[in-house]
Amino acid sequence: MLSWAVKNPNKLAAYAGIYPVQNLRSWPMKRSLVATLRDFEVDEKTFGQMIDQHNPINHLDPLAEVNIPIFIVHGDSDKVVPLEENSGLVRDHYKKLGGEIELEVVTGAGHQVIDAFFKSKKIIEFIIKHS
Question: What is the CATH number of the domain that holds 46?
């Protein structure tokens, strides 16, 4: 999702996500490496050498340049897509670029289907505002 957004900043009004994978060094490198290497048909060394050029957290500049607001909801107990390795890094990098970003952290929540994520009043209002 973020990979597409950073390559197409003029095709969106905003970016919203619910515990999204945003850092390829977190997931899939740490949590799905075998399947990822098979999908890309490369070995681990080659994938490790090319990952940063494709990692969306390294390419947030185009979004900041056109003032794309970002809103993310993420649980602080997510073991599948860890908060600080994904949404936390995006928040920190985007703020350094002067981008507008809000990160709603759901205390005690992991990577699960619960109302705190999918019925978050804040993310719903954000999406409606930017639709």
Answer: 3.40.50.1820
Q: How far apart are CA 78 and CA 22, in angstroms?
A: 14
* Domains of the chain: total: 1
Structure confidence by residue, pLDDT tens digits, 28-80 = 777 778 888 887 788 989 988 888 888 999 999 999 999 999 999 999 999 99
Supply the range of the domain harboring residue 89.
2-129
DSSP letter for 58, please: G
Give pTM, 2 decimals: 0.89
Contacts of 57 (CB under 8 A, 6+ apart): 2, 22, 23, 89, 90, 93
